[in-house]
Amino acid sequence: MLIAAHMSGLIDASEATRGLDYRCPACQQPVVLRHGSQIPPYFAHHPQAPCHLAGEGETRQHLLGKRQLATFFSDWGPVTLERILPAIQQRADGWLDLPQPVALEFQCSPISREAVAQRTAGYQRIACYPFWLLGSRYAQQKLNWRLIERFACWLTGWDLCLLFWEVDQNRLRVAHHLRQTATGAYINETAWVTTLSELVAGPTPCTTVVRNPGQKQYRSYLNQVLRRATPTLRPIQEALYLTGHQVTGFPDCLMTTTLTAPIFGQGLILWRIVLTTWIEEQADMTFLTLAELSQRALLLVNGRTTAVRFDGRSAFRQEQRKLLTLLTQAGILRPTTQGWHVCGHLEWARDYTDWLENDEKSGC
To answer: Which residues form the Competence protein CoiA-like N-terminal domain (predicted)?
Structure first.
């Protein structure tokens, strides 16, 4: 904690003197000024009297980062450190009192999705925009759904992005245009930002080269995963087995290299495979049945359409329409007033070996 109550006002830890009476501005309990050789000055509660407002331990990274972020965002106006918000029982690491207030949350320690959602919802209740900025613990992680689900947000020019504050470099790293390949890999573009004006301006144009695996390579990968009995693919194969199919024998037309919003878990292709097998088992399919099957298939491949700060349902419906168009053009579906009539089935190989033999015979 950088700010404490002293006498009739507030005092910054950098200007405080040991031995005086300091209290937490939120709970009014006594706090102690701490100042070591490695860690900048800060106030701490006594272990037996923790504050009722949630907060993380004050590491050097967190203390320095809060001050650096106050300077970084100061072009928008004065930044109040550790603003107490009684209406929502929260303490913002930084606060800008703008027509639409802005809260700065510098997250360095582990935090659950529920806690992020609760704090974000609190800010939204008071019409405040929260910037979640992540420390080195998160920056070292490979891009994954847990990060995206908790902290990703839409910023003008940057599309869906994650913000990482690098204390040692005193700069912002923006992982922007978050997307997912059809085989399930999360990808992004990266920019380093040193001023607020650069953040507002958005990224300079750049092109990310995405190397999608070919059909043979992807099927070979799935075959290897099945042979290793990897738990992630087992539920999918079990569901396909009930329809008489094997995951590596999927019809060629379901292969795609489309980049999507990062909502499809183990990948768009696997979602297409599962949903297609279930559609082929129908005789007549209503709009409601399609919606239910689509959602079940998404859950089976560990996909989700909603996160704390973004909604991927529109992107999900777009991919659903693409698959329906593909199946209609292939003669599998025929539109009706209530939905679709299922006219036939795609051509499935028995397994990877069977597909490989057919592929070699066709000379592809």
So the answer is: 19-53
